[in-house]
Every structure is written in C-alpha cells, then in structure tokens.
Amino acid sequence: MQKLKLKIKNLVEMEELAQSLALYFNEQPGIIFLDGDLGAGKTTFTQFFAKEIGVQEVVTSPTFNIFKRYQGSKRYLNHFDLYRIKDNVYDQGFEEYWDSMEDITIIEWSKYLPNEFKSLANLHLTIKIIDEDKREIAVLAKNSIILFLEENNDEFIY
Known about the structure:
With about 160 residues, the protein is of the alpha/beta class. The chain has helices at about 10-25, 40-50, 95-100, 145-150; strands spanning about 1-10, 30-35, 65-70, 75-80, 105-110, 125-130, 135-140.
C-alpha cells in the first residue's frame, strides 16, 4: 500500500474524483474504506461514485439501515455505514459481501472495523474538512490505484 494526499476545492472536484475512481473499480471490483468526521463528504463521494457505475436508485446514507445494496450497470455496489454498530460487526454477517470478488463495496466509518478486516481495502480514503467546500483526502491504496490517480487525477495531488 502506498500513500498520497489530495486536495479537493469543491463539490465539482469531489464528483470528478469519485467518477474517476468509479471507472477504475467498475473494471476491477474491490473494497473502498471511507473515513472522516460527520459532514466530511463520505456519502456524497459514494453518491457520485454510484451514479458513475450506473446505479439508478437514489443513494442515501445507510446510517440507520447499516447496509444497502444497489445494482450498477456491471456489478453491485454494497454500501455500509458502521457508525451505529461500531464494535458489533461480527454479529451482522457482512463478510459474505466483503468476500465477493464481483462487487464493489464501500464502507463508511471503516475505523470501527476489527483489525483483521483492515487488510481488505484496495483503497482507503480519509476525508478531512478544511472549510465549507475544501477537503484534504489522505489516500492509502494498492500501487495500481496510486498509479491510476497519478495518471488521471494529478490536478488534485499535492
């Protein structure tokens, strides 16, 4: 895993980043971890991402449902929000979705996952609020994703 830092100035740039990463993951499914404070943009990122992979439904935060599954044009998007369950992940039976080699899985509040699940992520984005519109995103990703970001989203790298 390699590290990278991105700076996003507004919602348009967040959408561009999400769309770009959606193109990558639509071709090779995987697991994305999203962390950051309340209101940082985790669900907004997921909404932009979902739209790009062909999800027709309105994507909302699964805070109260914990899990939602959406059909995209090529594969399913599994969307988790672990904020409300914190340490009770084992009781939910989510591993069957995380082990899928065909789906894309986005897990908000991944910091609540037990340590043995931390290695599942292909991409881990930690979104930090700079001001009302600006975000700093710490990226931890497999080498191929880092290369993809460097080639396709270099305007966000600092």
